[in-house]
Amino acid sequence: MDVDTIIPAMMIDSGGTSLHVGLTTAILLGGSKFAQLFFASFINNARYKKGYLLVGINSRVFSLLALAILFWFSGMMEGGFVIGIIFLFITIFSVSGAFANISYTDILGKSVRPESRKSYFSIRQVISSIGMFVSAFLAARLLADTDYPVNYATLFGIAALALGISSLGFWNLREVAASQTRISSPGRFVAVIRQEIRRNKRFRHYLMLVNTQGVVLSLMPFLLLYAKEHFDSGNDVVGHFLLFKVTGGVIIGSLLFWFSRRVRYQNMLYITSLLALIIPVYVMLEPGPSLFALSFLAGGIVFTLHNISINGVLLEVSNNENRALYTGLSGAGNILPAVFPLLGGWIIQQFGFTLFFSLFMAVTAGSVYFIYRLQCRI
Questions:
Q1: Domains of the chain with bracketed CATH
Q2: Residues 190-222: pLDDT tens digits?
Q3: CA distance 192 to 190
Q4: CA distances from 336 to 25, 28, 186, 340 (A)
Q5: Is there a cis peptide before residue 149, judged by omega within 30 degrees of 0?
Q6: Chain mean position to CA 153
Q7: Which of 110, 344, 350, 363 has the fewest Cβ atoms within 10 angstroms?
């Protein structure tokens, strides 16, 4: 259930417009991380985070299973009602992911040594990308050989089962308790936010970086919309795009694993912004349907580089005492990524893709300044 290909294709096939694609992207990308801000103080006060992690994961399993059931019986429902219910369960999926991510990041920071984190993120990306490549191939076949809505019912059913199985390892996790900054009230929470942002300049620049470079994650759903509108692409092409995206992730993840000690996060962030600026230019040159898939290959590289470097920098600017709090506060860095897909969907509907790509490039270019100010040591 890839956010950049499967989900927007599902929304379009369900009768959605560019605004619906933008709203879905906003909920799943920017919205999920922005929601972390509301859970930060609650989860931060707990010495052990494993229980909250399991609640978040199992809530996601429930939402995926509910989507599978919805599509199985969608033929008996009105199209507008189906879209409304899709948004409901997508929101549950997104919010529960925000709930789980705070706990996961805190546990991860306590479990992996600082000098091993970059290679850990890289090899994790390679392993998960190989698994995604296999699933992408199966998803491509399923989308091409099965009609709507049975194809999406099957995809979400498999996703629910796979996520349920993948979570089993966390049940046996032996978590290390860590001291933490306790937050006793909402007023105290606001005071802590102001204090940390004022005290930690690198964290302040990190929030601005996420607010600018974070919009790169919302590009590929609109590339899919572009392909469907300009090339009349079907579901078989959607699976093709997914394979290209995953291939990009495998390639860059493998390279980063082998060269993890030589490449700094700061350089990875520069490459992310530069490549993200090239993709819209390439698309606007109208490469044609046969070469358009290369934009998804580049998009997979951008997606992987951004996630590895942003997660690594967050661990670098925080410590075991404040990591859960910082992960929650990082939600404040996702205000623009949450709003941008909504704005993008409206701009495309009203003015077309050229203005959308121009705005995307302007915001992404602004991230270069904050990358420079981060001064990453690793």
A1: 6-169+184-374 (1.20.1250.20)
A2: 677 777 777 778 888 888 888 899 889 888 888
A3: 5
A4: 12, 13, 24, 6
A5: yes
A6: 22
A7: 350
